[in-house]
């Protein structure tokens, strides 16, 4: 007999219906497909029906007889949230650098002096696979508690073949063991190791010739990312890395124009990246080229918030026709949060986005940014039964009562994993 889960009678169900073929742009980012007094029916982990509670009761009375019922009366239901940019697998924390930055040191300064990404690289290289697994597993549970059911995870704190593989293998193991879906990205080009600063081209060669073939061969990643930034990797080096990845079937992503304008957005359009991320300093022309080329813009306002930088102009990007997604950028240096709902708050309060747009940006557009749009990101028949239930009477309240966790229930492929705000 099939297992039926019936999420019944929510005050609002936000379906995100109709955006699975193409990421939502412009006005379409406001079309959230809201149903009042809505219900969701899941059969064997897959969505069977979404509609008004009345319609579902009438049409599926037989199936409902043996259903597990989750009463969502007075609450708001969304697709399980999707976080399309995280540095999930890493060791240690950097609160010391936070204190330094509060006293005026800059993020890049700290990195160039051997802290920053290098500090986390040292900690990650030292950590055993078991330690990385354990720390990352705990982070995944926190993501779940904040309503996230799918995430992307990058390597990039290994910076040698051995340690990049260690990070990616841990992510793969977690993808098997933890209910959250994890999509992996190889980011061997996250920083030039301190002792190779004099010869960055040789490091780029190693990323391409030594690391990439093994990552591809072992199928440890779908995407290939690079930190294209002055003092890290130049646009030429980034192009070389992304083009080489394509030959191995790795789809390009890019950390672009985060600290300084550096033509990262333009490069994303040129190489046909699936997404370009950060974009705080992206040029208008770059944004237009991205929109033209169908690149998703992944904005990370938690990073601007935490680095006390100017926010990306999400409003302008959406108006220019760029499909926008939002993400935590979870990492120990520039964005040590796991709260995607808080990122939604920042999207509204700091980037001029509407409550509808931030919902689109953390569900279906986020799914498009990691190639998961056919499986997750909306509540539509045939998609995974991934559902987040917030203890708020309407979705507007999510961005209104900011900085607190409203998640009540999380269902992943029909299984209740969070109940009453705690792990079930
Ligand atoms: O996305 N900008 C580069 N990489 C990360 C930060 C990594 C770190 O500081 O450890 C980011 O912001
Ligand atoms: Fe990042």
Please describe what this structure looks like.
Strand 16 and strand 17 form a beta hairpin. The mean pLDDT is 98. Helix 7 packs parallel to helix 8 and helix 14 packs across helix 15. Helices cover 38% and strands 22% of the residues. It is α/β, with parallel strands linked by helices. The strands form 2 sheets. Strands 1, 2, 3, 4, 5, 14, 15, 16 and 17 form a 9-stranded mixed sheet that branches. It has an 8-stranded parallel sheet with strand order 6-7-8-9-10-11-12-13. Fe (iii) ion (FE) binds next to loops.
Please give a handful of descriptors for the protein shown:
single chain; 424 residues; alpha/beta; nine-stranded mixed sheet; eight-stranded parallel sheet; 17 helices; 17 strands; 22% strand; binds N-(iminomethyl)-L-glutamic acid; binds fe (iii) ion
């Amino acid at each position: 007999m099939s297992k039926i889960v019936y999420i019944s009678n929510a005050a609002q169900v936000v379906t995100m219906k109709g955006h699975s073929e193409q990421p939502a742009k412009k006005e379409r980012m406001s079309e959230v497909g809201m149903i009042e007094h809505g219900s969701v029916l899941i059969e064997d982990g897959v969505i069977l029906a979404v509609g008004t509670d009345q319609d579902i009761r009438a049409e599926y009375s037989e199936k409902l007889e043996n259903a597990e019922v989750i009463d969502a009366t007075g609450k708001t239901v969304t697709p399980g949230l999707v976080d399309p940019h995280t540095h999930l697998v890493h060791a240690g924390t950097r609160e010391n650098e936070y204190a330094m930055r509060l006293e005026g040191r800059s993020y890049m300064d700290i990195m160039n002096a051997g802290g920053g990404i290098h500090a986390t690289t040292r900690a990650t290289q030292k950590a055993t696979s078991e330690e990385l697994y354990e720390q990352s597993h705990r982070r995944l549970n926190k993501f779940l508690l904040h309503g996230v059911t799918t995430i992307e995870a990058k390597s990039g704190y290994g910076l040698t073949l051995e340690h990049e593989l260690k990070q990616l293998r841990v992510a793969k193991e977690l993808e098997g063991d933890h209910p959250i879906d994890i999509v992996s990205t190889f980011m061997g080009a996250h920083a030039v190791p301190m002792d190779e600063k004099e010869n960055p081209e040789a490091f780029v060669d190693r990323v391409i010739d030594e690391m990439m073939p093994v990552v591809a061969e072992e199928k440890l990643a779908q995407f290939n990312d690079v930190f294209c930034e002055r003092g890290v990797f130049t646009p030429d080096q980034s192009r070389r890395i992304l083009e080489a990845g394509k030959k191995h079937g790795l789809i390009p992503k890019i950390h672009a124009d985060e600290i300084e304008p550096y033509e990262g957005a333009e490069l994303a359009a040129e190489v046909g990246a699936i997404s370009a991320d950060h974009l705080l300093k992206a040029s208008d022309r770059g944004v237009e080229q991205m929109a033209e080329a169908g690149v998703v813009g992944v904005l990370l306002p938690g990073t601007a918030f935490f680095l006390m930088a100017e926010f990306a102009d999400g409003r302008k990007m959406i108006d220019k026709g760029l499909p926008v997604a939002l993400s935590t950028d979870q990492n120990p240096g520039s964005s040590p949060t796991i709260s995607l709902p808080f990122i939604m708050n920042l999207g509204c309060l700091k980037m001029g986005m509407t409550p509808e747009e931030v919902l689109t940006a953390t569900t279906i557009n986020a799914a498009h940014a990691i190639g998961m749009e056919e499986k997750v990101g909306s509540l539509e028949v045939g998609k995974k039964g991934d559902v987040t239930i917030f203890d708020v009477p309407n979705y507007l309240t999510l961005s209104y009562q900011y900085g607190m966790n409203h998640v009540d229930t999380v269902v992943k492929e029909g299984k209740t994993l969070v109940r009453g705000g705690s792990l079930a």
